[in-house]
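We keep the chain:
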Amino acid sequence: MKFNTKVRYGIRAMLEISLSDQETGIHQKDIAKNQEISFKYLDPIIASLKSADLITNVSGKKSGYKLARKAEEINMLHIYEAFDSRLQVNVCLSEEFDCNRRNICSVKDFWGDLNSLIIEHFESTSLADIREKSEKPRG
């Protein structure tokens, strides 16, 4: 299974924002520089994170970004869902997927169980957990 670049970079951007001073926030150019993400590619990522109410602008002109809530309250599934509506390891798990083997498939439960494990891991891992494993917060 491979997660798309926006999800991966979104998690990195959120980590960088969580490491910044929450009073002044961090500018997009600094997120891009520190995480080695193209400034231009970061634009839609930041927009998605703002739309999902995960980050907000610090008040004032030319302000930076800060978390919209505590890092402990943001889990990896919240970040994932800012970019993709539903985490699925196999298309056959979708109700919209038309499969003539749906009622007799011997491996559908395997995919469903794996999907549940991944979702549980995403839900049980907070941004604060990721931050704790990272370097010390920067000012």
The mean pLDDT is 89. Strands lie at 55-57, 65-67. The longest helix spans residues 108-124.
